[in-house]
Amino acid sequence: MTTSRNLGLALLATLSGIGISLPAAAHDPVFGLGPHVLFQGAYEVHLKAMRNKAGNESSNEGAVRLAYGLTGDWVAGVETPYQYHFDNGARNQGLGDTSVFTKYRFWRHDRLGLQESAAVLLKVKLNSGDNSLSPALGTGTTDTVLGLTYGYESLKWYRWAAVRYRFNGRTAAGLKRGDKVLVDLVGGWRPTPPSYYKPDLVWMLELNGEFTQRADFNGASLANTGGNEWFVSPGLMWTYRNFAVKAGVQLPIASSLNGNQAKSDYRTKLELEWHL
Q1: Within a 13 Å sphere around the CA of 72, how many CA atoms are in the beta-carbon half?
Q2: 159 pairs with which residues across the strands?
Q3: Burial, 235: exposed, middle or buried (Cβ in 10 Å; 0-12, 13-18, 19+)?
Q4: How far apart are CA 201 and CA 218, in angstroms?
Q5: Interior/surface letters 245-272, b for 16+ CB within 10 angstroms, e for the rest
Q6: Strand, coil or helix: 118
Q7: Which CATH class is domain 2-275?
Q8: Which of 107, 193, 217, 225 has the most CB within a 10 Å radius?
Q9: How far, in whole angstroms, is CA 66 from its chain's centroid?
Q10: 251 vs 249: CA distance, rounded Å
Q11: 88 secondary structure, DSSP code
């Protein structure tokens, strides 16, 4: 019995040392979508701060996200943002549109020190913000996002790939923002082997593409809307046990926007994440 117990403890220590059973080992990219889920009964508390700048328009947003592991492969949650907008001298701030989401990991393949997985995402942004202001704090619509993502996570290298389609609704006044396709390709590198008892650092580099259709008003296409943008996004993920910090910046590298639109200058994001 003692021999079996010692072997079990040795095996557990080995697995922990190579990062297979680390609670904070698996996370998603900063800007892209990954297949990360929670174990059954786990909670995730997620704080996020973002800033977007394009021409004379800028927006700052802080958000709180809560998630729960329904099973070991299925997670659901809710996110509520607080927004601060500045547009040509006009300023507004307050609660934005709340979103509810669920992600299901339908495939997982484990090897020694390596995990591959794939998941699908469903996210619904509710029409809950104040869109009567200018700039508006909400879109005035209920929007839906469908996503598919793949992840490769080893002791040293990370790879993620994802595609998302956003179906935007139509406002009561008849305005429909163009639907959007988002594409993410991400690589990550861990310079030192992970350990549950020491901080862990992963450097990431993302390529993010956005393809937006033209908006229309009561069926009439609007000229100065829609187009494509590509970003390169360096970032990092720092974890210690069940706590993680992620940060990154999106820098535009190519843009093809329709009509007279301000091109993106930069986007930044900082995230704090606890698993309970």
Answers
A1: 4
A2: 152, 187
A3: buried
A4: 50
A5: ebbbbbebeeeebbeebeebeebbbbbe
A6: strand
A7: mainly beta
A8: 225
A9: 14
A10: 6
A11: T
User: What is the chain's pLDDT, residue by residue, as a tens digit (276 residues)?
Assistant: 444 444 443 433 333 333 334 434 468 999 999 999 999 999 999 999 999 999 988 889 999 999 999 999 999 999 999 988 777 777 888 899 999 999 999 999 999 989 999 999 999 999 998 777 777 788 999 999 999 999 999 999 999 999 999 999 999 999 999 999 999 999 999 999 988 889 999 999 999 999 999 999 999 999 999 999 999 999 999 999 999 999 999 999 999 999 999 999 999 999 999 999
How far apart CA 264 and CA 257 sit, in angstroms, is 10
Per-residue b/e over 4-35, b at no fewer than 16 CB within 10 Å? eeeeeeeeeeeeebbbbebebbbbbbbbbbbb
Pairing state between β 180-189 and 216-217: unpaired
Helix or strand (DSSP H, E) at 274 = strand 266-275
| Domain-wise residue ranges, the chain | 2-275
Give the helix/strand (H/E) hosting 108: strand 99-111
E strand or H helix that includes residue 50: strand 43-54
